[in-house]
């Protein structure tokens, strides 16, 4: 049972998974979460970043059957050199 769920989730979110792996391979290894319209947090070290200190670009989109919504894949580059990803249901395009 558990194995079939794992296989199904790979198929369901295949386009998202492929893009995330591609971006991980070129150095976007941290995970970010949007706290509000002005601030992001790095999930690995809980460091907070104001929008003025990050560059955000939309890199792709995929449909997530778990949440029944489209997810936008964003790359994040911080002023201190961290590079990572943000998955969100809306587009963020802040420029530093």
Question: How would you describe the overall organization of this protein?
Answer:
By secondary structure, the chain is of the alpha+beta class. Helix content is 24%, strand content 43%. The chain has 2 helices and 6 strands; from the N terminus they run ααββββββ. The protein has helices at residues 2-12, 14-25, and strands spanning 30-36, 39-42, 48-50, 54-64, 69-78, 83-88. A 6-stranded mixed beta sheet has the order 3-2-1-6-5-4, covered by helices on one side. It is globular, with a radius of gyration of 14 Å.
Task: Tell me what portion of residues adopts beta-strand conformation.
Answer: 35-45%
Run of helices and strands = HHEEEEEE
Count of strand segments: 6
Sheet bearing the most strands, described?
6 strands, mixed
Rg over CA atoms: 14 Å
| Poorly predicted ranges | 5-10
Shape: globular
Strand order of the largest sheet: 3-2-1-6-5-4
Quaternary status of these chains?
A: single chain
* Range of helix content: 10-25%
Number of helices: 2
Rounded mean pLDDT score: 85
Structural class: alpha+beta
Question: Kindly, what is the distance between the CA atoms of the first and last residues, rounded to a whole number of angstroms?
Answer: 47 Å
Task: Summarize it.
By secondary structure, the protein is of the alpha+beta class. Helices cover 24% and strands 43% of the residues. It has a 6-stranded mixed β-sheet, covered by helices on one side.
